[in-house]
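ugh finaly. both done.
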Amino acid sequence: KDITLVEDIMNYEPVVLHSADTVAQCREVMAQSGYTKFPVLDDKERLTGMVTVKDLAGSTSDEDTIGSIMS
């Protein structure tokens, strides 16, 4: 039986967003990267949540911060 190790499929340099980034910035990163989910970091580079395309759909303004709409 073949075994797949996490290190064989993981991304060592993931695309991340920061809680102060805007919805507009997130849309741009999504379009450029092709990904629809991103880890969100605070100003100290700590994981604070995830933002998804579904979160963006609920946003009322491109100027909303990711921190205010993320899951």
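ok and the 2nd:
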Amino acid sequence: LDVIGERLRQAVLDLKIERGGSAAAPHVTLSVGGAVTVPTKEDGLHALIDVADRNLYEAKAKGRNKSIVRE
């Protein structure tokens, strides 16, 4: 999944969609947060979504235009 997140991020960057009026970047960028797990009876879908959400916020905190996917 890390490769997929990075490919998505790069594909958006390669489009060079202008981002008028933004001091953050001249073009639209993408931050990706993903999660991978082997499901168990104890872990539910919400736990997986929580990990992906934390990874997204970490990607944004590291300067945006990042991809973070992990367990």
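summary for the 2nd one i guess: The mean pLDDT is 89.
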